[in-house]
Amino acid sequence: MTQPPPPPPNQPPQGTPEDQPPQGTSGAPQDTPPQDTPPQGAFGAPEEPQDAPPQAGFGAPTPPPAAPQPPAAPAAPPAGPQLSKAPQAGYGYPGQPTPPPAGPPQAPGYGYPQAAQPAQPPQPPTGPGYGYPGQPGQPNAYGQQPAPATVPFGQQAPYGQQPGYGYPGQPGYPTQQAYPGYPGQPTVPMPSQPTGGGRKMNAQVAIIVAAVVAIALIIGGGIWYAGSGDDEGRTDTASTGGTTGGGGDEKGGSGGTGGTTSSGGTEKVPGDPASKVLFQIPSPAVAKDDTVIVSGSWLTEKAYVKSGVAEIVGYDPDKGTKLWTIKLPGPVCTASRKATADGKTAVVFQPKMPAKDSSAGCSEVAAIDLAAGKELWRKTVKSGDYPITFDNVTVGGNTVALGATEGGSAFDITTGKLLWSPKAADTCYDAGYGGGTKLVAVRKCGTYDARELHIQTIDPASGKVLSEYKMATGIEYASIVSTDPLVVAADVGDSAQDGSGVSDFFSIDNKTGKLLAKISAPGEQFAARCDGITEMEQCSGIAVGANRLYLPTEEHDGTGEYSRTNEILAFDLTTGKQTGQRADAGDGYTLFPLRTDGTNVIAYKGAPYDEGGQVVSIDGGTFKQTKLLQNPSTEAVRDAESRMLPEHSEIIYSQGHLYMASEYADDSSSSSGDKEYLALAFGTSG
Length: 686
Fold this sequence. Notes:
Layout (H helix, E strand, L loop, with lengths): L202 H12 L45 E2 L6 E2 L5 E8 L8 E3 L3 E3 L4 E5 L2 E5 L6 E6 L4 E4 L8 E6 L14 E6 L4 E6 L2 E2 L2 E2 L4 E5 L2 E5 L5 E4 L5 E3 L8 E6 L4 E7 L6 E7 L6 E6 L8 E5 L2 E5 L13 E5 L6 E6 L8 E2 L8 E2 L2 E3 L2 E5 L3 E2 L6 E2 L1 E6 L5 E7 L5 E8 L2 E7 L7 E5 L6 E6 L4 H8 L7 E5 L2 E5 L2 E3 L1 H5 L4 E8 L2
Antiparallel strand pairs: 1-2, 3-42, 4-41, 5-6, 6-7, 7-8, 9-10, 10-11, 11-12, 13-14, 15-16, 16-17, 17-18, 19-20, 20-21, 21-22, 23-24, 24-25, 25-26, 27-28, 29-30, 30-33, 31-32, 33-34, 35-36, 36-37, 37-38, 39-40, 40-42
């Protein structure tokens, strides 16, 4: 679990430091049948009539913020990416110091293994337990097991796009927000709670807990973000609960608005990119001073789907009317960023509504049919007599894979059949997985001060290891940015020093497990972020596709007075070198990659305070930008959009439709007087 989101721009931080974020909510949600009218609380009268008249706007307009003072220039700017002006350190403007990520210090010299890798400490032998063997080729590593009494639930298809780096995922390392001209507040990760009779809290978990308590930060009243994208369609696109960013090539959705198809991709360029507000979903009511996770958002041909408080709701993608509702016994903890081609995904949730500031344990998993709007099955996995608390979930192939400190578990997404689960005899465990068309496990062995991470591409049905790459001893955490092509992110030697969780990317051959290239991405120069502690797929500001890795630089001074800007750079996944391609955001704008579209890159473009945001397609060859969507610049719309910071929101773009959603619900509306929204929808007309 993680700390709640920081406050939105132009608002001071609220609350007081706490050891851990409140996780409960007040009362069970009320059962309400699907509604024929769109969610109320619109900001301004819609341009077209809706089924029901909109209610009051976003609130009183707020004056533009005072021009921020540029931060003092560093004594000696670090060597940076190939830019005419090296980006400055700091993730936002002005930059705030960020505490180092939770975890033990690591000795210097932890790098990717060289041709002659130092000898690794011998591993204790592993039995035929739940974990697949370290050597590929051994059949049925996980072993088939009977399904327990109770059990859970990817990459979406057509119309929508998987919420990129930001979807449904849990916040990770302490982060600072990078939104044009606004300072951000750091956030910290919260470790999962150990379960009853399961494995005892190990040194790794104890250290994380201690670190979290030590760096507990002020809780803001804003919105946090949701996970990130991934390979073959993993960034904010047709599926996944949220996130914007990291991801591979995602096929464009159907239902275009006319215009021409962008070169190298499937997204159509509208004749007029000007958008209007299609609908907005009010933030659900929660108890005073309470925060509830509402992680998960997906897009299908027929519905925009969003998690609420203990429910998952399908909305008409153009009108916002409720199409269907799936009730859950407790709040959602985390949701898969991936879905199957036919729209099946999975969520992890609590078995009941917890008391305020507490958790009932994230032990329930369910498979959801997004196309039909129904729950397929619900399961739990036990360690002894107690249910396992899951840290993450994804969908790879036709398999729902879940990671936990007790080890990994998997189910067939259609039937709910248990494919594998933890064994007491295992000395290594699957901390988490990356999904999509392939399934990749992050397998941990050894103690925290001599950790060994095995990046294993496995057969989704049997768990058999197909290939394996062993990272250098001492790298404590790793994130799966993409599974096809396979790209892993890690903070080697704790060198990022900015809370991003990323210092290097590793490009790995899926078939052989061979390292193709190591790409250095210093935290003070690049704005990519990954969790890696509990959410192995939660990365943001990253896109992968067409044998390229696309990264945004940190914001830095522009040419105008007080202006800030950044760029997106491309790296070759085979050589690890920059390709020389660069997309400039322009003075006052910031580029944030969401996903790839064929050979192109789809990016959200943050605008100055007096303009609306944009979505652009960056040509993979020329790097020329084509505007796909331009949001309104009215004050009410700008205010609402600015609260959905791209680094910390679930963002989905497909065929002229932009959906921005929060991953948390709190009572900030009542305390601040500002209208808060669960989700916003924008669309072009032609």
